[in-house]
Amino acid sequence: MDLDKETVASVAKLCRIEIQEQDLTPMAQELSNILSWIEQLREVDVSSCEPLSSVVEAELKMRDDTVMDGDLAEDVVGNAPDSTNNYFLVPKVIE
Amino acid sequence: MVEVKNFVQGETGEWEVIIGLEVHAQVASQSKLFSGASAKFGGEPNSQVSLVDAGMPGMLPVINQYCVEQAVRTGLALGAEINLVSIFDRKNYFYPDLPQGYQISQYSDPIVGRGDLLVEVDSGYTRKIGITRLHLEQDAGKSMHDQHPNKTFVDLNRSGIALMEIVTEPDLRSAEEAGAFMAKLRAILRYVGTCDGNMEEGSMRCDANVSVRRPGEPYGTRCEIKNLNSIRFLMRAIDYESGRQVRLIEAGGSIDQETRLFNPDLGETKSMRSKEDSHDYRYFPDPDLLPLRLDSDWVAGLRERLPELPDAKAERFVKHYELTEYDAGVLTSETERATYFEEVAKGRDSKQVANWVIGELLGRLNREGISIERSKVGAAGFGKLLDLISQGVVSNSLAKKVLDEMFSTGEEAAVIVERKGFSQVSDEKQIEKYVQKVLDENLEKVEEFKNGKDKLLGFFVGQVMKLTGGKANPQMVNKILRDLLSK
Q1: pLDDT per residue as tens digits for the range B182-202
Q2: Contact state of B148 with A92 under an 8 Å Cβ cutoff
Q3: Rounded Cα gap, residues B402 and B400, in angstroms
Q4: Is residue B295 classed as helix, strand or coil in its secondary structure?
Q5: Per-residue pLDDT tens for B380-438?
Q6: What CATH number is given for B428-485 in this structure?
Q7: What Cα–Cα distance (Å) separates residue B15 from each residue in B208, B221, B247?
Q8: Which of residues 117-176 of B touch A (CB under 8 A)?
Q9: In whole angstroms, what is the distance from residue B236 CA to residue B253 CA?
Q10: Where are the domains of chain B?
Q11: Angle at the Cα of A59 (from A57 to A63), degrees rounded to 5?
């Protein structure tokens, strides 16, 4: 599978990764190589297999509905570059 | 079921409006879907946030069994398929109120599949609306943009709260139908107790997908109106949006598939995101969570223990209490109303009880904006007032005044009747005196009556009631009047 520069740029944007114009072409080449390598898996016939969503042979553990966490607002905002009255402050975002 | 055509008239002919809804209903749980922080409304900023909800590295989600159970019970109440295996996926996007960088949701394999909901529309017909699916997902935090000129405030208390997203087929054809659907869905959620249905607090909100087409043609391009938090706004937004699309197409334009926001002050929808920014969520199974497997016996047990639902209850009210379908519908639209009615109706005339609950009590509650469970007049006290009427202690019209008093003070009916001297006069001798007085003062009319002017009986009754301040027992007044006049 061949990725073009534009696709790489848009994936980078979705992932919020900054990428320089001159790096787009080599990156497209690298990603295309990785994808073609993985594409070899398509040669295996999986038509008789259920899709796999976990490789662990275990049951999903559940918890009871009780409040036993929270009440640590100072810790929650502790690492934030900017906060006030335990709110996170971020540059204004309006879509 | 009657096929109802709901077309809107444009400049160049008729158009059909096609609507599908995505409803977000908050699970009425104590704690969040994947963490033990409180899910209560209105806490101090970030006080109901665990390190899982804050998206701290190394934190792992552990699912809340109660939330799973409520999603299944809701699915059962909607007559939907329950999927015994479902999968949690990551929906990836960046926004400051989503600290994980992804929302845990269900994409390809939701917990609940196809179902149906019968919706009674006010215009007097019923429509069956397809439910596409119901899945569990996390709510995001809350951003406030109006606190500071160039900063956004973020509170993560909502982050991670369990939501049920309920998606309908594009089966709705008008704002009225969409409003009726939401009201019915809300009633069912409240009946089974899986969501409190409180739209002001955001426990229930919806997105509407709206498109228009010429009758019989394929679907047009749809626009999604986001985050409608009241039934009234939903209906207004649909009316505006369908009108906008018809005008645009008739003027030779075309509809762009886009997300729009409804502005309730202007009554308009406005484009929210441009197409080039359109989201690619890159869903994939969340590696932190195993597939959710349900035991079929457990599901069967939940089905058995489901409470009686609105449609079944209304049907029983019609049969058992001999109510009209309309009255039964009003009384069963909320579970608290139905319980109240049944408590009062125990051992009493059910039609009288229905009339008084619907006509008098609900009217007063609506005017004051109070819910029936907060009413100062409890079912027991209301029943005692009705007993006073049927025992002839107080007349119908004075009983309404007593109810007014009970409604504002919460006092017992008998106490109010006593204090205000509202007791009905049922003493024959005493009433006879009043009747005689009225007849003596209206000799001419008595003569006319005797000459065949029957209608005057009502006049005499009115005079007696006026004389007694409405306290004379009307049946006795009637009887005594007839006796004296026939002499």
Answers
A1: 999 999 999 999 999 999 899
A2: yes
A3: 5
A4: coil
A5: 999 999 999 888 788 888 899 999 999 999 999 988 888 887 877 777 888 888 888 88
A6: 1.10.10.410
A7: 18, 14, 11
A8: 143-145, 147-156
A9: 23
A10: 7-301, 308-420, 428-485
A11: 150
